[in-house]
Amino acid sequence: YGPMMTLLDRFEGGELLTVEAARTELQAIARQQEIEENTSSNSGDLEELELSEDPDKITYRGMGDDMPTVVLPMQLLSLADAGFTDIGQQRDHNEDHFGIETSVVRRENAMSKQIQAHGLYIVCDGMGGHAAGEVASAMAVETLQQYFTTHWSDRSQLPDEAVIREGILMTNEKLYAVNMKNARSGSGRMGTTLVMVLVQDINVAIAHVGDSRVYRITRKQGIEQLTVDHEVGQREILRGVDPQDAYARPDAYQLTQAMGPRDNDYVHPDIQFLELNEDTLLLLCSDGLSDNDLLEKHYGDYLIPLISSKANLDSGLIELVDFANEYNGHDNITGVLIRLKMRPNADQF
After folding, report:
1. What would the pLDDT profile of 148-171 be if each residue is shown by its tens digit?
2. Domains in the chain: ranges and CATH
3. Which whole number is the average pLDDT over 312-325?
4. Residue 51 confidence (pLDDT)
5. For 20-62, how does the pLDDT look when each residue is reduced to its tens digit (9 = 90+)?
6. Which of 35, 109, 153, 291 is in the most buried spot, having the most CB atoms within 10 Å?
């Protein structure tokens, strides 16, 4: 990141000796990045800015051991998202469902510009045969959206773990009740996986049940799978079984939990919280997109470019799903992308 490196050189050369001088320079850099970010969103002629330093912890070098370390916090610059689902090449109906709810508020005056954003993103992969899986996945998405409308009233912070867990278990109870009613009439059981991301500025909560996944993609770390599949193979690995032996089992890919088939005693969602500190792309997906290590092998071609503000998320996601149809195609394919761009928060320096 050129301006930041120039600032570091000026520190090393002794040109900037006070905190006030550093703050002034950082505010100018943040304003310039904001201008270039907005211009980049409307034009394909500008090159994407990349940070060559860890933006979460920038230490000014050459200042001596007796000088304080300057830690530069980050703030949200922009939030964008996209969702897409496809029936796949071998299915006659689509049992996947997704939901996106996002709100972005901009506050600007002569001195500064702030963006406050929150979003709720859900992907569900239904199961249970024709119609049943479609009903389960759609019901889960709609129930959770309604739940967080009333249980996430303070959008200045994320709901805590207990609130998120309560919403998931309430959704499972609703699906399970329908299954019990249908069982009395001779209908089969329905169920669905769940993966959900809640975003509040640079803070993220992730929850999942089943084998739908969340990935984080950054320029620095590449691709990271943030969720662990709830299936027999992974359960055995957690018990200390060698991965090769765990996945040699004929039931290795059988789910150990899902939404709907059983009551809440058998549903244990994994919930985690993250604070992002660099430009980040989050991907929620059903296993039709992640099977056969497609994302791990091809993220560089299909996902890394989408971190850029110049990239169109909708088009990029469709291209990824089209490729997944060629690479896999055996199942429904669903993905939701969230792009979070950061900038230095000079106001807190």
Report:
1. 999 999 999 999 999 999 999 999
2. 2-72 (no CATH), 80-344 (3.60.40.10)
3. 97
4. 36
5. 666 676 667 666 666 655 555 444 333 333 333 343 333 333 3
6. 291
Q: Which residues contact 187 (CB under 8 A, 6 or more apart)?
A: 132
Q: pTM score > 0.85 for this model? A: no
CA angle 156, 162, 164 (to 5 degrees): 65
Per DSSP bridges, beta strands 213-218 and 222-225 are antiparallel
- Judge contact between 124 and 192, C-beta under 8 A: yes
- Dihedrals φ, ψ of 58, to 5°? -95, 120
Q: How many CB atoms neighbour CB 263 within 10 A?
A: 14
Residue 142 CB-density burial (10 A; 0-12 exposed, 13-18 middle, 19+ buried):
middle
The one-letter code for the residue type at 31 is R
Identify the burial level of 27 via C-beta atoms within 10 angstroms of its C-beta, where 0-12 means exposed, 13-18 middle and 19 or more buried. middle
In the numeric block, which tokens belong to residue 331? 């199942």
60 phi/psi in degrees, rounded to 5: -80, 120
Name the packing angle between helices 294-302 and 313-327 (round to 10°).
140
C-alpha span between 294 and 281 (Å, rounded): 17
C-alpha span between 123 and 132 (Å, rounded) = 17
How far apart are the C-alpha atoms of 106 and 92, rounded to whole Å? Answer: 44
User: Crossing angle for the helix pair 161-184 and 132-151, nearest 10 degrees?
Assistant: 140
Q: Which two tokens stand for residue 201?
A: 């500025």
Confidence of residue 63 (pLDDT cuts 50, 70, 90): very low
Lowest mean pLDDT among 8-12, 20-24, 233-237, 340-344: 8-12
Confidence of residue 305 (pLDDT cuts 50, 70, 90): very high
